[in-house]
Amino acid sequence: MSKYDYLVVGAGLFGAVFAHEAALRGKHVKVIEKRSHVAGNIYTKEIDGIQVHQYGAHIFHTSDKQIWDYVNQFAEFNRYTNSPVANYKGHMYNLPFNMNTFSELWGVRTPAEAKAKIQAQKDAAKLAGEPKNLEEQAISLIGTDIYEKLVKGYTEKQWGQKATDLPAFIIRRLPVRYTFDNNYFNDTYQGIPIGGYTQIVEKMLDHPEIDVETGVDFFADKDQYLQDYPKVIFTGMIDQYFNYQLGELEYRSLRFESEELDIDNYQGNAVINYTDAETPFTRIIEHKHFEFGKGDSDKTVITREYPADWHRGDEPYYPVNNKKNNALYKRYATLANQEKQVVFGGRLGQYRYYDMHQVIHAALVLVNQEFI
Ligand code: FDA
After folding, report:
1. pTM exceeds 0.90
2. What would the pLDDT profile of 208-218 be if each residue is shown by its tens digit?
3. I need a surface site. Which of 23, 88, 197, 206 has the fewest CB within 10 A?
4. How far is CA 20 from the centre of its chain?
């Protein structure tokens, strides 16, 4: 047996919160991470004075004051407000769907005019009964214009399937707002950590009771780890842990293509979604706008995000929480419950579409269970 009380597999947000809280309670923790750096998907790296979100745009948002206070211990947050813009074949529309979008689309000026327009399109679509697929569901919620220009192409690229083949439940609701408010989130708190996200995880792990090793894959020596450590917190893929014995869960992957440009401002916004079907990427992130243009004044860094099918060995960015996968996950969760020495946590361990605030919450719930 090793000198450690816990082995944490994965130095993402879940693993880091758990390790930090365990160390504060006097536990000795070893963290192993297969990537060459800590912070998982929230990893940011400074290029030309700009904090570049290496694994996609990350905006922290929550309405839970405790979580907000918790994360603010590790970084100061700016007042960034997520207001993405859609580019549909060269026409720009504000998101989420709001009076600015409706005015840009139809020239309407009042909420009553916008509601009447959407209702007329829903009526014209003559949808009867329960929506049979994502297309019908979206049209029943927001009418044909918004669906065709701002939802269809983007969603089909994201999922790699036709909207008529995707299940309706993927879109339970679409944020429609009859005010001129471009703030994407309804949460009380949101922002970007000044100086990036990596520092948050580094500070969490910076404790004499925590040892971190990067570039180490748990599966290279799974049996030995299980022999050596009394308790394991596993934040990798649950199906991989069980050697895919019940079958593979599905994930969506992404390919990021970054460019450093010798100009000060490429697109005027942090996030621009490309909502047509022809453009192969879903969005372009211009990182300096997360920090209001901080960084070298004559440089900018942009990243194009290409959705991709997932195959073994690819990064599993998104769990695909459809009925089939959720049922399979349940069966893996039953196996996980029998594995008394191991706790499965985080996005991949619990196969759940967690945002950062939810991951912190879930890790703190585990802390409460472990250390009552
Ligand atoms: P995460 O995947 O970050 O960490 C798990 C770690 O375990 C990884 O570092 C991995 O390498 C490691 N690992 C896996 N298997 C291993 C093994 N066998 N051995 C060793 N190490 C192993 N959230 C939000 O609140 N606002 C936002 O704007 C966004 N945006 C966003 C964009 C994109 C493109 C994605 C993919 C995700 C988001 N998120 C988000 C979600 C956010 O990234 C997520 O909530 C957290 O990163 C999840 O933290 P975890 O620790 O669960 O997983």
Report:
1. yes
2. 999 999 999 99
3. 206
4. 22
Residues belonging to the active site:
173, 177, 252, 283, 305, 353, 355
Is residue 193 located within the same domain as residue 335? yes
Pairing type for strands 6-9 and 231-234 reads parallel
What lines the ligand 1 site, CB under 6 Å? Answer: 9-15, 32-35, 40-42, 55-60, 217-219, 235-236, 254, 317, 346-348, 354-357, 359
Whether the predicted interface score ipTM is above 0.95? yes
Q: Looking at the domain assignment, is residue 363 inside a domain?
A: yes
For ligand 1, atom 9, the nearest C-alpha belongs to 40
Residue 131 within a domain: yes
Out of 52, 58, 192, 200, mutate this one to test ligand 1's pocket (max ligand atoms within 8 Å of CB): namely 58
221 CA → ligand 1 middle, Å: 22
State the pLDDT confidence band at 167, using cuts at 50, 70 and 90.
confident
Q: How many domains does the chain have?
A: 2
Which domain CATH number covers 320? 3.40.50.720
What mean pLDDT do residues 136-165 have? 94
Say if residue 96 is preceded by a cis peptide, omega within 30 of 0: yes
Q: Domain range spanning residue 108?
A: 94-170
Q: How far is the CA of 263 from the centre of ligand 1 (A)?
A: 31
Atom of ligand 1 nearest to the CA of 318: 36
**Residues in Cβ contact with 330 at an 8 Å cutoff, skipping those fewer than 6 apart:** none
Q: Tell whether 176 is covered by a domain.
A: no
Ligand 1 centroid distance, CA of 39 (Å): 8
210-214, strands of its sheet edge to edge: 210-214, 29-33, 6-9, 231-234, 342-344
**Do residue 243 and residue 342 come from a single domain?**
yes
| pLDDT one-digit tens code per residue, 315-328 | 999 999 888 999 99
Indicate whether 330 belongs to any domain.
yes
Alpha carbon of 266 to ligand 1 centroid (Å): 28
| Amino acid code (one letter) for 58 | H
